[in-house]
Amino acid sequence: MIYPFFKKTTLIATSALLAAALHAQETADTRPNIILFMVDDMGWQDTSLPFGTEKTPLNERYHTPNMERLASQGRMFTQAYACAVSSPTRVSLMTGMNAARHRVTNWTLEKNKSTDRKSDVLKFPEWNVNGICEVPDVPYTYEVTSLPQILKNSGYHTIHCGKAHWGAIDTPGENPHHFGFEVNIAGHAGGGLASYLGEQNFGNRTDGKPSSLQAIPGLKDYWGKDIFATEALTLEAIKALDKARKLGQPFYLYMSHYAIHIPVDKDKRFFQKYRDAGLSEKEAGYASLIEGMDKSLGDLMDWLEKNKMDKNTVVIFMSDNGGLSSEPEWRDTPLHVHNAPLNSGKGSAYEGGIREPMIVKWPGKVKPGTRCNDYLIIEDFFPTILDMAQVEERKTKQPIDGVSFMPMLEGGSYEYNKRSLYWNFPNLWGNEGPGIGPTCTVRSGDWKLVYYYETGKKELFNITNDIGEKKDVSIQNANIVNDLSRDLGEYLRSVEAQRPSFKTTGKVCPWPDEV
User: What's the CA gap between 443 and 418, in Å, rounded?
Assistant: First the structure.
């Protein structure tokens, strides 16, 4: 028998529980999860998914079925730009700043040490060789409020997996935890990797001798095992997602692969099929790196579908710079053609160095199977991701140069191609090739101007008509050269961009509008 007192109490308790449940449902954080899938050194053509107007021999060579799958569910961006080398891109992503402003204009590694190649003619500026950090008074850094820090402060669970490369060894910027990532899997100051192979402990030595500065940290559970780094990172990312699913808050996963950076170790899961198709050992190894990366993308998409989280998760695919085209040791074809029809590759101001494969899937927001031909640049990711996450409080220590590309995602009209994009690379990267050298560049509409600091030379290309930048039309279009030179010069001065100087005179190289 239930006495009236207990009946009344039970009804009150039940009503309270129902009210609490309804309130929880009303106040639940339904903002989307976000996965940013960043590939290292992946060229615009390193995929079976054509980002151009037609399929190319390189698209026929490689197999990336999960990129094709993602594109069928989302929107391809055919003119997505990054910087020519890694650290500048990654810092712009983290901060929303153009590289000319944050001055991390070359790749970082060791504290207070420049990575510039020596020049007989130029002295390079004292750029921010130590990267970025979130604390003041660190020499040769830019103090910032990072993207993951803002996301974490707004209620996101933040996960970093793979390559970081925002700050030098023994500076605060070397560790993803210092930027608001609650989980860090294998991220450190290194910009590459010593080995993809678990059998080689991913470059970590166990004999007491110093390990390579590029040895992947962590992942000790996989040391000595027959496993590729790409797979090990994916398994660890999925473990982190399994945990994130239980936390009851949206997550941001920065899945930042070391692939497809050199060394070109063979991913045995895919290598033989490319050999059987007639590729050389070198080219088959490279193709296996690409397909291993693509499998990781598919594994993450499978996890989302299995856990019924695919409908409320944004997936963004991007690369940090163009494909490496200047290493004869590991390719059989002539140099600087590995991103064709784009010219040159990593380190270059030409399209092969800065134009990247990009895809965005966002169910309910982005129409599946569509393409966007308007251009955007890496610093635009910062405000866009914050818009995706519906973050209103986004006060930062740094100014924001990026522009949200949300209208491009939603298919609305926005005159993106009427703004200019800017690059400043007052440095000398490690290799030589077309468009590689101390340069500054502007893209405005169809036109692109490249200015060489050392010689004062200017090149003008109509990118719409000449995607391969084969024909310099600067002589025929002097007015356009002058207009773009003025645009570029005014922008660089406005952000206090750096320039190299001449060793013989000590004078700083002229701005592009002074030549």
Answer: 10
pLDDT at 247: 96
- Asked whether the predicted pLDDT for residue 221 surpasses 80, the reply is yes
CB 507 within 8 A of CB 501: yes
Least confident stretch, 7-16, 470-479, 486-495 = 7-16
Strand ranges across the sheet with 439-444 = 420-425, 439-444, 447-452, 458-462
The dihedral built from the CA positions of residue 376, 377, 380 and 385, taken in this order, carries a sign that is positive
CB 256 within 8 A of CB 187: yes
The pLDDT value given to residue 327: 86
In sequence order, which residues have a C-beta less than 8 Å from that of residue 112 and are 6 or more positions away? 129, 130, 139, 140, 168
- Spatial distance between the Cα atoms of 4 and 2, rounded to a whole number of angstroms: 7
What SS3 class is residue 63? Answer: coil
* Sign (positive or negative) of CA dihedral 427, 175, 43, 474: negative
Pair of tokens at residue 166: 């925002």
E strands along 82-210, which residues?
A: 122-123, 132-133, 142-143, 157-162, 183-185
Helix 381-388, helix 86-95: angle, nearest 10: 40
Alpha carbon of 304 to those of 236, 245, 250, 313: distances in Å? Answer: 15, 10, 13, 8
pLDDT range class, residue 412, cuts 50, 70, 90 = low
pLDDT band at 157 (very low <50, low <70, confident <90, very high): very high
Residue of 409, 436, 412 whose CA lies nearest to 425: 436
Residue 3's pLDDT band (cuts 50, 70, 90): very low
Residue 418 has a pLDDT of 80
Phi then psi for residue 160, to 5 deg, are: -110, 135
Print burial letters for 236-273: b (CB count within 10 Å at least 16), e (below 16).
bbbebbeebeeeeebbbbbbbbbbbbbbbbbbeebbee
How crowded is the C-beta side of 295, counted as CA atoms within 13 Å? 18
- Quick check: 385 and 345 in contact, CB under 8 A? no
- The residue count of the chain comes to 515
Q: What is the DSSP letter of 511?
A: P
Confidence of residue 329 (pLDDT cuts 50, 70, 90): confident
Q: What is the DSSP letter of 262?
A: S
